[in-house]
Design brief:
35% of the residues lie in helices and 27% in strands. It is built from 11 helices and 18 strands. Strands 1, 2, 3, 4, 5, 6, 7 and 18 form an 8-stranded mixed β-sheet that branches. The two termini are 15 Å apart. The structure holds nicotinamide-adenine-dinucleotide (NAD). The site of nicotinamide-adenine-dinucleotide has 23 residues, from helix 3 and helix 4. This is Ornithine cyclodeaminase family protein. InterPro entries: BhcD-like (IPR054860), NAD(P)-bd_dom_sf (IPR036291), ODC_Mu_crystall (IPR003462), ODC_N (IPR023401). It holds the Pfam family OCD_Mu_crystall.
Length: 325
């Protein structure tokens, strides 16, 4: 990037950042976090008592990728009535050598792409190579991004899906059809019995999948739990699985592991950063029958990593707007 502030709109982010770019950026930053080269600062999240909104910041610094900045935004439940997305965010990137603002990047599309990249990095490193059936629990905004990214990691033939609101499933079925994958809406027993890889991406506050429903060898990416109190799976699944995460501090406080840790079914030491697997300091899956679980809590460094890619690519292609501050 040259001098001046680069502005990258939502539309341009969609044009320039592909799933491959997001995968590489997220994989690299998870690796940097595990090496101690990148760290997330404490998250701020506040109910602002206006418009029923939740507003906050996720920030951090990646010394390896030289990415410094923050994602600011949150959740405005009344936005849908105004024709806007309820989740709103913008990424601010700063020059780590001078502190000057370098880029303003729309964060809505990038949030979905970086979240899908996180689960697909986990599938790439932890799922059985011969996985054929993908199980989807959830059918909201994030789910189609998750499905598209996961489909690139293994030679899946079929998607089995369940959602607490079944009327949302046909839309996910259309994405599967577009990808050439057979799609079937099933109950949770069948989902667990058939799926080799499961992604959970809901706003649930109670377990949707129980331990007895998960077969040996499954890889589960729990992606919906990103807040204290949320929960998607039975803590006994974590007790029977080898558990990986993006960041241990978030995993035990607001991720899926919060419940298993609180109830004493696992300890903090039982959780491995996925970056250790990427860096080759942890072997990952040890055999075909092992259940692996990725607790994808979502960290600010993921946002900064993909926003940095967006700013670079948009600058190179001339699609970014440039202003002097
Ligand atoms: P969405 O509102 O578009 O869809 C919500 C999904 O959850 C749907 O499948 C819906 O049927 C289901 N659902 C709604 N209320 C539920 C309830 N009470 N119990 C069980 N299921 C319920 O949301 P989205 O944008 O697809 O996001 C899904 C989840 O992913 C949210 O919890 C969101 O906070 C989380 N998320 C996580 C990350 C991360 O990095 N880990 C990033 C973005 C979003």
């Amino acid at each position: 990037m040259t001098d001046g502030l680069v502005i990258v709109s939502e539309e341009v982010c969609q044009q320039v950042v592909g799933r491959g770019d997001a995968f590489t950026a997220v994989e690299q930053v998870f690796a940097a976090m595990a090496r101690g080269d990148a760290y997330n600062f404490p998250v701020i999240r506040e109910a602002i008592r206006h418009a029923d909104a939740l507003y906050g910041f996720k920030s951090g610094f990646d010394r390896a990728g030289l990415t410094l900045g923050l994602k600011s935004g949150g959740y405005w439940p009344g936005n849908a009535d105004k024709g806007l997305t309820n989740h709103q965010s913008t990424v601010f990137l700063f020059d780590p050598d001078t502190g000057k603002l370098k880029a303003l990047v729309g964060g809505n599309y990038l949030t979905a792409v970086r979240t899908a990249a996180a689960s697909s990095v986990s599938i790439a490193h932890l799922a059985r190579k011969d996985a054929k059936v993908l199980g989807m629990v959830g059918a909201g905004h994030q789910s189609s991004f998750q499905l598209r990214a996961a489909a690139e990691q293994r030679a899946f033939e079929k998607v089995v899906a369940w959602n607490p609101h079944p009327e949302m499933l046909p839309k996910l079925g259309e994405v599967a059809a577009e990808l050439g994958l057979e799609f079937e809406a099933v109950d949770r027993d069948r989902l667990g019995a058939e799926a080799d890889v499961i992604i959970t991406i809901t706003s649930a506050f109670e377990p949707l999948l129980m331990a007895a429903q998960i077969k040996p060898g499954t890889h589960i990416a729990c992606m919906g739990t990103d807040t204290v109190g949320k929960q998607e799976v039975d803590p006994a699944i974590l007790a029977s699985a080898t558990v990986f995460t993006d960041e241990i501090a978030q995993s035990i406080s607001l991720g899926e592991a919060q419940h298993a840790v609180k109830s004493g079914q696992i300890r903090e030491n039982d959780i491995t950063p996925i970056g250790d697997v990427i860096n080759g300091t942890h072997p990952g899956r040890s055999d075909g029958d092992e259940i692996t679980l990725f607790d994808g809590t979502g960290v600010g460094l993921q946002d900064l990593a993909v926003a940095s890619v967006a700013a670079d690519l948009a600058s190179k292609s001339g699609a970014a707007t440039r202003v002097a501050l």
